[in-house]
Structures are given as C-alpha cells and as structure tokens.
Amino acid sequence: MRKALNRKPAPSLRGSSLQIIPLLGLPEIRRGDDLAKLIAAQSRSRGFSFEDGDVLVVAQKIVSKAEGRVVTLSRLRPSPEALRLSRELRQDVRFLQAILQETRRIVRKGPRALIVETHHGFVCANAGVDRSNVPGNDRVTLLPRNPDASARRLAAALKRRTRKRVAVIISDTFGRPWRLGLVNVAIGAAGLPVLVDLRFSLWRMNWRPPRDSRCEKGRAFPPS
After folding, report:
1. How much is the pLDDT for 12?
2. Whole-prediction pTM value?
3. Angle, CA of 104, 109 and 115, to the nearest 5°
4. How far is CA 193 from CA 50, 105, 120, 169, 203, in A?
C-alpha cells in the first residue's frame, strides 16, 4: 500500500524496506458486510493505493463479524459439562457453553480462562470466544470456521476490486504458555508462504545433520 507522494522513494530503499500503514476509520462491521469493498473504499479515502506484493493484516474480529460468527449467550442451552465447569470455576455457564462448542479438548482449567484446543487445532484461551468490541452485553464472537478460506476469499475479492495481488493475514491475539504479555498470531493466511524450510541451509552453515528447523513465517509476530 502506497500513499500518493510527489517524490519517489530513494532507490536504495526499494526492495529492502518495510512500511506499516494503519487503515483507520472502518465502520462497525456487521454480518454480511463486504470487507473488500469497505477496505478498498477506506484506503482510497485516506489517499492510499494497494500495490502488488502488499500484505494486508486484518483483525479476526471483523472477519468473524462479517461472517456472522457472533453468538447471543442467552440463546445457548448449557450442557452438563458446562454446568459442572461453571460450579467448579465460578464462571458464566453460558460463556463456558460457547467455549465448549468451539473446543476439541480442554488442555488446562483456570479461574480466568480455559486453555483449549479448538476444532481448527489452535491452542488458546477460551477457544477464541471473546466479549470485547462486540455491541451488547450478551454477545460474543467466535473464530472464523476456516480462517485460511476466509483469507483466500478476501484476497480474491481485493484483487477483483484493486487489480493488485494483495496477500491477506487474519490475525488474533494469543497468550503464550508461562509468559506474560500477548502476541498476534496469524490464524489464517493467503497469498504468501507461511512455512519456510531452513533445515538444509542450517546444515550447510553448521555442518551438522539436518533436523526439523521449519519456521512458520507468517504464523506468529509481535503485536504492533
């Protein structure tokens, strides 16, 4: 993404610089909203244009809202397991039921959160079920059902609107085991490699047999 300027960037910076541009001013996202249309229109109004090779990082929350992954807690019927956990942890049984519906297995129970493995395979707090930035006191958002597919759809829609090849990362905030603070994790991606195999390069450098040194290139990065 590039902002219209009267001067060109210095040649020495081409191909070796990283520019992070926040896209401010998007409205409250609702079910059925066309994210590509909103993002493209807002970028134009801010004087930005997408370029081939740009990477758009989108918060999971707006993707979930646009896809209708919002649940009203009062409409959920608690299961026996949710009732048992509510008594044990002294938490809202409806919130626990929302978590359990998104959970493959419980990894650890705590007074403030359940650490679980989601149906996607993510290990995170409360299966990604979140009350923050959701209108109303009785509603929560869930993670997209298939974040990679969501990223592919958004990338394809942006290409149709901008005529540019824009990669998309869908990002969510995760805690890390035995660590304070949070990181942003790419739960979905399209248009860029997310796995880089460094085993052979490390073997050549250190003259040691190659082992599992595969790095998930786009999957985890510190929050901006």
Report:
1. 44
2. 0.82
3. 50
4. 19, 29, 19, 11, 22
